[in-house]
Amino acid sequence: MIATHSADFFARFAPEAEDDDRLLAATLWVYWGFAFDDARCDAGPLSKRPAQFNALAGQVQRVCDAPFAVGADPYVGALRDIVDRFRSFAPPTQVRRFAQAHRAWLSGVAWQVGNQASGRMPGLDDYIAMRLLAAGGEPTFALLELATGAEVPDREMYRPAVRALTEMAILVAAADNDRHSLLKELSRNHTDQNLYTVLMAERSLSLQEAVEAGAALRDRVLRRFLELHDRVRPTAGADLRTYLRGLRYGIRGNNEWGLRVPRYLSRGHWPDEMEFSELYYASQPCDTRPGPVEGAPGIAWWWDPALA
């Protein structure tokens, strides 16, 4: 759990957080989320047992919805403590948004566990829909309001364009995480469902070809994110602008964290803290084609010209 460097991770998402208690509470959930993911989702005893996982997920989610909910699993009590911290300083609207995002995450993990149990390899469109939930981006970005104190009005937060930007930020980060964790997962035979295995199965690609195709998909989504962001920001209120900055910080912060964090062992060994002090970015995207990603109709609406 310590090797997740979760404080480093979330501080990169919310560098504008000025209240230490708020930032601490958000960071504690990130530590909890990584631990729960490892122990109960990806490779734990419930990772291929959907009925048992769903029973636990119900107890976990109830803690987010009700102040005095209980459960036998130790992760339930730990989460109750964290959510109680949220309730102590945040308005009900923000706590409720986090609870809804948390439910979305658990639903995606349940989908993933079901696939693992049945040996089903999803197609690209299904995988993206699942990954948008199972990656944990929904609750992580919902923490931005809790950490910074921003209160985005419903009329702005629920605009289709803002929803599209949130989903795009999640997918870019998820694609980066799939890349960062690939070596670790290959070494532990945990590669049944990631962007590359999906592309290899659907398009009959080699691993190297799938990595290149995955990078191209990621860059096309990021380009669209930047285009749409620049259309939305000029009319955004102050709190929405804070949230939009958090999406941008999160994309870059997640990427730079993932290249350094011992959890992913990105270079096949435990990295020194200064090993990646000189990171650099490509001067241009590896795929500059306009328009929606082929084979993924479920996200084509992100390119709708009417979004603004």
TrEMBL record:
The keyword Disulfide bond does not apply. Its EC number is 4.2.3.-. Keywords: Lyase, Magnesium, Metal-binding. Its cofactor is Mg(2+). The keyword Magnesium applies. Pfam families: Terpene_syn_C_2. Belongs to the terpene synthase family. This is Terpene synthase.
